[in-house]
Amino acid sequence: MSVASEYLQLQRESTEEMVRRHAPLVRRIAYHLMGRLPPSVDVDDLVQAGMIGLLEAARNYATDRMASFETYAGIRIRGAMLDELRKTDWTPRSVHRKLREVSEVVRQIENETGADATDAEVIRRLGIDAQEYHQILADAASARLLSLSAPEDDEDGAALDVADQEGLGPQDRFEQEGMRGALVEAIGGLPEREQLVMSLYYEQELNLKEIGAVLGVTESRVCQIHGQALIRLRARMTGWREQGAAADSSKARKLKSTG
């Protein structure tokens, strides 16, 4: 069914009917997100937030978006869930600090060697044992606040978030597209196994257990590989985070001068 045909069909439905028909999408997205969140997060809270996102999507969908309603609604549902999670940040500051430290070490090693930083190199540079390092990787995979585009001292945002383009000015859109391009390039440069985990998790939407079955490894090992990929991406996106911080600072100065 074309986007235009779907839009005409949706026009004939009431908002309530659209929400009821696509409600299973909310639960599917909620349970997928739960795969990287701690047990303390209540899936019902995510579902409730997601239903609000679905309701907004049903009210605002228009054919000129050039995307199916399910694709559009999925973005709005995920955004609503992530907004809800941001309101109740569970990640200790110590976790953020350790993730930044490991990311910086990975960046240093890769700049020095021109090759992917290995576990052994990172462990040796940090002066910690393998058990502590693996715990940090698990935290990286679980912490929704590992922002790839935020400045180093910014503890807001979510892993691999894609910003909603609505409300962005031309310059903001240009910068966002540039960041996306850099992120795609950085993912393409990951070690093969890390690329595969990222693809299976974010594109195919498999959970960690399912990915483990594909790779023939345990769920905990998949969690570690996922964490390694996120930390490596954070290290390689440092330039974009610094550029974003500089841009925000410039905007703040302009606002202050015109205030």
Automatic annotation (TrEMBL):
Name where it's found. Answer: Cytoplasm
CDD domains registered for this protein in UniProt: Sigma70_r4 (cd06171)
Keywords on record = Cell projection, Cilium, Cytoplasm, DNA-binding, Flagellum, Sigma factor, Transcription, Transcription regulation
- Write out the residue ranges of the motif Interaction with polymerase core subunit RpoC: 45-48
| Region Sigma-70 factor domain-2, residue ranges | 18-90
The lineage's top-level taxon is Bacteria
User: What GO molecular functions are on record for this protein?
Assistant: DNA binding; DNA-directed RNA polymerase activity; sigma factor activity
Q: Which residues form the RNA polymerase sigma-70 domain?
A: 45-58, 207-233
Query: One Pfam family from the UniProt entry?
Result: Sigma70_r2
**Residue ranges, annotated region (Sigma-70 factor domain-4):** 186-234
What Gene Ontology cellular-component terms does the record carry? cytoplasm
Give GO terms for biological process.
DNA-templated transcription initiation
Primary subcellular site in the record, as a coarse category? cytoplasm
**DNA-binding recorded as keyword:** yes
Q: Which residues bind DNA?
A: 208-227
Cross-referenced HAMAP family = Sigma70_FliA
Q: What does this protein do?
A: Sigma factors are initiation factors that promote the attachment of RNA polymerase to specific initiation sites and are then released. This sigma factor controls the expression of flagella-related genes.
Q: Which family does it belong to?
A: Belongs to the sigma-70 factor family. FliA subfamily.
Classification via PANTHER family:
RNA POLYMERASE SIGMA FACTOR FLIA, SIGMA FACTOR F FLAGELLAR
Under which name does UniProt file this protein?
RNA polymerase sigma factor FliA
Q: Which organism is it from?
A: Dyella marensis
